[in-house]
Amino acid sequence: MGSRASTLLREEEIEEIKKETGFSHSQITRLYSRFTSLDKGENGTLSREDFQRIPELAINPLGDRIINAFFPEGEDQVNFRGFMRTLAHFRPIEDSEKNKNPAASEPLNSRTNKLLFAFRLYDLDRDDKISRDELLQVLRMMVGVNISDEQLGSIADRTIQEADTNGDNSISFTEFIKVLEKVDVEQKMSIRFLH
Description:
Layout: H1 2-8, H2 11-21, H3 25-38, E1 45-47, H4 48-52, H5 55-59, H6 63-69, E2 77-79, H7 80-88, H8 95-98, H9 111-122, E3 129-131, H10 132-143, H11 149-163, E4 170-172, H12 173-179, H13 185-188
Antiparallel strand pairs: 1-2, 3-4
């Protein structure tokens, strides 16, 4: 199957994906092979159902939120390029990338883009802020029934209180960044096998 995957992906496509995502040639061909093995419809795209067959996502409490991140709003299929763009958020940042030309566009795996990706997992209604209800819903997904609603409410209230600097009872992306400024996002949001 590996040879079939590499023959369907043209060399110029690989080069474009390399530039856009920072993945190496071998990583792209390996991920293309994985993509085609997930593509049960053999139509060059993945559906939500294709993603739901991935055991690690099936057992992840945020699996549905992660799966949703692969699909542009209103879309129910993702092609290989879109798949790679989303995965690029999880690519570890190389030392050479940290000192890149500041005029160049920010790589998909930059700290800011990783944080934006994480922020969007919580921003369920996509209004660019995390409300108490959204925070509660995500917390409930993460802990299930292991914590009472009262305890979850207390955690959500405390989180909003600590993060909300402008008093609107929600967390903006700027406030989200501020709260996480001391967290090693690069470490937590990097898939090491992509190195």
